[in-house]
Amino acid sequence: MVWQDTRVREDVADFLLRRDQEFFRAKTGLPLSTYFSGLKLRWLLENVSGAREAARAGNLLFGNIDTFLVWNLTGACT
């Protein structure tokens, strides 16, 4: 999932029904949006078969593109 992915737009709308944008901006420095990684991780755990179980077992990795590049370029993935 990349930052343009909007599968979590309903989650964003739901959160904004409970709190206004200023609440999220004060906590994170940014307005709540579909590009937040935490919302994407939540979506993956709830919608990808076996993802939650893999995470519980310690067999699921999640990160942004920077994390992926460092993981691959340092040999940590081998």
Topology at a glance:
Layout: H1 9-18, H2 21-28, H3 37-47, H4 51-56, H5 65-73
Give a verbal description of the structure:
The protein has 78 residues and is mainly α. Helices cover 56% and strands 0% of the residues. The chain has five helices and no strands. The two termini are 23 Å apart. The mean pLDDT is 89.
- Cα Rg: 15 Å
Task: Name the helicity range.
Answer: 55-70%
Mean pLDDT: 89
Oligomer: single chain
Low-confidence regions: none
Which percent range describes the beta-strand content?
under 5%
Structural class: mainly alpha
What sequence of helices (H) and strands (E) makes up the elements? HHHHH
Figure out the total of helices: 5
Question: Count the strands?
Answer: 0
Shape descriptor: globular
Please report the distance between the alpha carbons of the first and last residues. Answer: 23 Å
**Biggest beta-sheet profile:** none
Key features?
78 residues; mainly alpha; 5 helices; 56% helix; 0% strand; globular
Please sum up the structure shown.
This protein has 78 residues and is mainly α.
